[in-house]
Design brief:
The structure is a single chain. The chain is α/β, with parallel strands linked by helices. It has one domain: Rossmann fold (3-Layer(aba) Sandwich). Helices cover 40% and strands 24% of the residues. It has a 6-stranded mixed sheet with strand order 6-7-8-3-9-10, with helices on both faces. A 4-stranded antiparallel sheet has the order 2-1-4-5, covered by helices on one side. Strand 9 and strand 10 form a beta hairpin. 35% of the residues are buried.
Length: 258
């Protein structure tokens, strides 16, 4: 791993155990992200992309595999240690915004800094103001989330992700709750942040928005695949679905005729 590598994940596997049932969400994923990259992760529902982002953001731990984040091995850290690294290194942008309804915009953006020792209230306020200015929302700092549009709420969420000056921004379907116009505005904002040096990893199901990234990672059934392989797998799945529908229709026809 060289000094430009920010994320280095090798042979990552994730198995969920429920009622004696094993669900293999990730099956040996390798992923490397260098500083300053803008990477999208896309694929069909259930392919493991959100699980991969959750592991990348230290919200969960892999069943197997190694993960080095900004030079620190993090795959086997305790929950408390993961929380400290997460607060320092990672900024999250969620589909549902996850703003706190009874806090004003400025207070929402301050939240990540309240978990860092040695930062005064005045410094928190100044850094929050600067983050809001960066996303064009400084004029709304005394509003509550309910007084904002969806696009404005997501801009505030981006400011909250930026305020701690993280090494990387993780965006989980950042346009999922937005109409096309507001979705495009958020994507342009992320593009501007990348142009200014931010490292971004984004999960999206929308090919239009995946194209904003400089590198696209495709997933299928818990594995990273190349684009040609993904297209072939999609075609196979489409044929299988059509066959199942045809069989179902034939069965119904036979049942009605009997």
């Amino acid at each position: 791993m060289n000094e430009s590598t920010l994320i280095d994940m090798r042979n990552i596997r994730k198995v969920f155990y429920t009622h004696e049932l094993e669900t293999h969400a990730l099956a040996g994923v390798d992923l490397r992200v260098d500083r300053g990259e803008y990477v999208s992760i896309s694929g069909p529902s259930g392919c493991g992309k959100s699980t991969l982002l959750s592991l990348t953001g230290l919200l969960d731990v892999p069943t197997e595999g190694s993960y080095t984040l900004n030079g620190t091995p993090v795959a086997n850290l305790s929950a408390n240690d993961r929380a400290q690294v997460r607060n320092r290194e990672i900024g999250f942008i969620f589909q549902a915004f996850n703003l706190i309804g009874d806090l004003k915009v400025l207070e929402n953006v301050e939240v990540p800094l309240t978990y860092r020792p040695g930062i005064s209230r005045n410094e928190r306020r100044e850094r929050a103001r600067a983050a809001l200015e960066r996303v064009g929302m400084a004029h709304r700092l005394n509003h509550y989330p309910s007084q904002l549009s969806g696009g404005q709420q997501q801009r505030v969420a981006v400011a909250r992700a930026l305020v701690g000056e993280p090494s990387i921004l993780l965006a989980d379907e950042p346009t999922g709750n937005l109409d096309s116009k507001n979705g495009e505005q958020v994507m342009l904002l992320l593009n501007d942040l990348h142009q200014s040096g931010a490292t971004i990893v984004m999960v999206t199901h929308d090919d239009r928005y995946a194209a904003f990234a400089r590198r696209q990672v495709f997933m299928f059934d818990g594995k990273v695949v190349d684009e040609d392989t993904l297209e072939k797998l999609r075609e196979q799945e489409d044929r299988r679905v059509r066959e199942l529908v045809s069989q179902s229709e034939q069965s119904q026809t036979m049942a009605l005729g009997s």
